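Reopening: structure tokens for the glycyl-adenosine-5'-phosphate complex, inputs below.
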Amino acid sequence: MANNEDLLKKIIAHSKEYGFVFQSSEIYDGLSAVYDYGQMGVELKNNIKQYWWKAMVQYHENIVGLDAAIFMHPTTWKASGHVDAFNDPMIDNKDSKKRYRADVLVEDHIAKIEAKIFKEVEKAAKRFGDAFDEAQFVATNPRVMGYNQQIDEIKARLYPAMGSDDLSDLKKLIEDLEIVCPISGSRNWTDVRQFNLMFSTQMGSLGDSANTIYLRPETAQGIFVNYLNIQKTGRMKIPFGIAQIGKAFRNEIVARQFIFRMREFEQMEMQFFVRPGTELDWFKYWKEQRLNWHLSMGIPEENYRFHEHEKLAHYANAAFDIEFDFPMGFKELEGIHSRTDFDLGAHEKFSGKKLRYFDPEINESYVPCVVETSIGLDRTFLAVLTYAYREEKLEDGSERTVMKIPPVLAPIKAAVFPLVKKEGLPEKAREIFDSLKLDYMCQYDEKDAIGRRYRRQDAIGTPYCITVDHQTLEDNTVTIRERDSMKQDRITIEEISGIIAKRIKENK
Ligand code: GAP
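Re-run output (same inputs, fresh job):
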């Protein structure tokens, strides 16, 4: 589904039309890279949060939750390294006056070379048919080998340039690759400068720099500074985890691609505290667990892939991303990092408080190592929409837009319709609706022909529609129509809630 710009545009339009996502402050022409979740969006978002929380906190007796404040003591961000190093290299094009992330310009250039490789492979696969051996082709085809060599050479310059204080190497790389501004088409670039991504504000009424505090750029630090509180009050034994869902803020240089890269977003993070020396085993464990969580939603495996970090952050000794096949191609959805004892060690140093664990099994006291799983809630939302959005041609020649949202996440679980707006059917349908709404988010709809009502529910991803007809008044049965197959079954009114529960559990 690589680079399907058209699909992204359709998802954005559909999200707006049906109350999933709106541009923030739209009546004032919007605020760049900030979005509001509408009546359907908030339900989907809450369901994703709940699905994650259950898997992480409820199903693991050694993981507990936390809801830390967004504002934190400013020294937190000194200790974590964000004040000094949470930077992106930026570059401006003097002609278009557009600002870019310098590393992203280079990565986009690499992606173009990768697309050429993909084309060569596709062509060869067609030519050779069943006999095609992709691995052998990639390893031996001179053109593909040349492209791969180009990529290796670029990366061999990009990573050291990113790690260096002198950003002139990065500018030289952009010049040598003859990268042009996508807007002006020119190569008239400024120098590359560092840009800190944290938003700052003042606390209290004194506007001096001593009162500068930051909007947290990740939720993780709230967990680290509460490590000892929770370990002691929860009598937690290592290994144990602390999970948190909350807002994070980053002043992204380039904020585009809808809710993929936002300036205000939500993270679902879990820090797992382990005995030093065991962190890489736990890292492997969490890598598998997290992929399984994604697959458990019912989105097929081919939509996901692992990406191993080639350049590790200074605090990590292993890092993988789970990437999703977004309309813009495979991009990071979740990060799993083995962060060593860097964070707790740094907070110990800066706060002067001991953040250690006495391990009775080995009779030793140590600063625990941390394995982190960090997933963007908004990106998960976009992943679900990307998978769910379908335009279908039906057997009768008509068309429908249906959101095949996994039932467990669907904003509205069931809609109840009277077949016609008379003869006692609305009263019966309301009775069913009033009872069903105690168990599920439901909608009642009696307007328009039944087909149009089905279409409206398809468009918001409602998995089950219950229709009350004349037979209902005789034998207390209704039809239940399943969104994806459009198959209808006749069931009794008493069975409705149980059948919906069973189908949601089975995710179908
Ligand atoms: N505590 C680790 C951490 O924050 P990260 O890779 O910077 O790691 C974790 O962020 C996740 O947060 C990403 O995988 C992504 O899903 C999400 N995320 C990061 N920046 C984002 C942004 N600007 N907009 C939306 N989601 C973002």
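Residues 45-72+199-401 form a domain with the BirA Bifunctional Protein; domain 2 fold (CATH 3.30.930.10). The chain has three domains: 45-72+199-401, 87-196, 412-506. Marking as resolved unless the reporter disagrees.
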